[in-house]
Amino acid sequence: STSFPSGHAMVSAVVYMTLGTLLAREVSGLWSKFYVMSVAIIVTGLVGLSRLYLGVHWPTDVVAGWAAGASWALAWWVIARIINLENGHNS
Predict the structure, then answer these.
(1) Measured between alpha carbons, how far is 24 from 37 in angstroms, rounded to an integer?
(2) CA gap 13, 41 in Å, rounded
(3) 57 vs 24, 54, 61, 67, CA distance in Å?
(4) 52: exposed, middle or buried (C-beta count within 10 Å: 0-12, 13-18, 19+)?
(5) For 10, which of 17, 42, 69, 91 could close a Cys bridge (C-beta 3.0–4.6 Å)?
(6) What is the pLDDT of residues 3-54, one digit of tens each?
(7) Contact 12, 44 (CB under 8 A)
(8) What is the DSSP letter of 56?
(9) What is the rounded CA–CA span in Å between residue 14 and residue 86?
(10) Active site positions, annotated
(11) For residue 6, how far is the Cα from the chain centroid?
């Protein structure tokens, strides 16, 4: 149906996980990076759970949205790493 995958879950994963990876690159310290990514993942999770709580999606809709959004964010993170390495940067 039109509810598969959950657009809210997908967009939240794209936005918050991409922002999390960008911010994690800028902060120093392992715990700071862990904190930034944890917040991004928790917010993404809460958006998906809210869709279930409101009864507007099935769990499979939300999981598919998370998977699609996380895949998109991961793909762009990999592209950014490749571009960064080609420009002679190690981080």
Answers:
(1) 7
(2) 8
(3) 31, 8, 6, 15
(4) middle
(5) 69
(6) 788 888 999 999 999 999 889 888 899 999 999 999 999 999 999 999 999 8
(7) yes
(8) S
(9) 25
(10) 8, 57
(11) 14
